[in-house]
Design goal:
Layout: E1 4-10, E2 13-20, E3 27-32, H1 42-53, E4 57-61, H2 66-75, H3 82-96, E5 106-112, H4 114-125, E6 130-136, E7 154-159, H5 163-175, E8 180-185, H6 197-213
């Protein structure tokens, strides 16, 4: 299924995105990239394709403008600015609630790396429309004080060999007060580059979103 390019207003900037909406879908997954990644990330695009094949809409957007990405390549600062990333996710969420093709759909977040922290902050700020959250190799701990205010069922997926991040996810789990689950993919590292690892992430994420968005 083809995607269409969209522009999402976020404060003083416009963010570039790709929106794919299958027929008869009841949910849309907004991707929250992190750590220098964007809408062209092959890992997130793979997951998005699997979600669309399962009948869910997807919106992949660049949370930083091209100018900001150039700054971030030098400083690595903006990718850890969870407040900025969360604000832009909230703006993208509001855009989805007004776009004719998605305004009636339940919304979920798929967050990777620092984007997972931003997704949880955004979920806490838009509890009335956020129905599910999935984190892939994420830093949910970066959501900080927002974690107890998240109302969306949350799935945390971590590689079995990504030991430091496992601990960060376990600490975040203790602060979440919603339906929650931690899935550890055996033998996988932070980027899930091992054979079959990303496929397992996609399966787990699809099951979670289908259950909560449909």
């Amino acid at each position: 299924m083809e995607e269409r390019e969209v522009r999402v207003s976020a404060g003083p900037v416009a963010l570039e995105g790709n929106l794919g909406v299958p027929d008869d879908t009841r949910g849309v997954v907004l991707f929250a990239h992190g750590s220098g990644s964007g809408r062209h990330s092959p890992r997130n695009r793979y997951v998005a394709r699997v979600l669309r094949e399962a009948g869910l809409a997807t919106l992949l957007i660049d949370l930083l403008t091209p100018e900001e990405e150039e700054v971030d390549l030098r400083t690595h600062r903006l990718r850890f600015d969870v407040r900025l990333l969360a604000e832009r996710l909230v703006d993208a969420t509001d855009w989805l609630t007004h776009d004719p093709s998605t305004q009636d759909l339940r919304i979920g977040y798929f967050g990777a790396s620092t984007g997972a922290g931003a997704a949880l902050v955004a979920a806490a700020e838009r509890p009335e429309v956020t129905t599910a959250v999935v984190s892939r190799g994420g830093r949910p701990d970066l959501a900080g004080s927002a974690l107890p205010h998240v109302r969306a069922p949350t799935l945390l997926i971590v590689g079995g060999n990504d030991v430091p991040v496992i601990g960060m996810n376990q600490e975040a789990m203790e602060q979440l007060r919603v339906e929650k689950k931690l899935e550890i993919v055996p033998g996988a590292t932070h980027l899930f580059e091992e054979p079959g690892a990303l496929e397992e992430v996609s399966r787990l994420a699809t099951d979670w979103f289908v259950r909560h968005l449909n």
